[in-house]
Design a protein that fits this description.
There is one protein chain. The chain folds into 2 domains: 64 residues, no CATH class; 35 residues. It contains 7 helices and 2 strands. Strands 1-2 form a two-stranded antiparallel sheet. A hairpin with an 8-residue loop joins β1 and β2. The chain starts with a helix and ends with a helix.
Length: 118
């Protein structure tokens, strides 16, 4: 998991090279920083990004860079589920029904339970 303080420190000290962008998984932006580091512009941008990262809330940082949603202290961080994963789950359930592993009632019950959880 990426750390907000580490990302901010990388932006402050070696942001002109785009190291913080690579750390945060934004490789395209990191390459642009390297290509234009001789102009000094990436260094100026990184200086502002240092403050932006530090001022960003932990929930926003985790949602953007760690791909998790935090539902408060009562719940742990839960990974986001993509729509492809949801579709795959329903398709796998349908395959189980079509192959005869589960009955029509079981299929409908599991499908309804899954859809209600969304």
């Amino acid at each position: 998991m990426k750390n907000k303080v580490v990302a901010a420190l990388l932006a402050f000290f070696v942001g002109w090279l785009g190291v913080h962008k690579f750390y945060l998984g934004e490789n395209g932006a990191g390459i642009l920083y390297i290509l234009f580091c001789w102009t000094g512009i990436p260094g100026i941008i990184a200086f502002f990004e240092f403050f932006f990262i530090l001022l960003m809330s932990d929930e926003a940082f985790n949602a953007k860079y760690n791909n998790v949603i935090n539902y408060g202290s009562a719940y742990s961080a839960i990974p986001k589920e993509s729509s492809k994963d949801k579709t795959d789950t329903l398709m796998n359930l349908k395959k189980l029904y079509d192959s005869g592993v589960i009955t029509a009632e079981e299929y409908e019950q599991k499908r309804r339970k899954f859809l209600d959880s969304l």
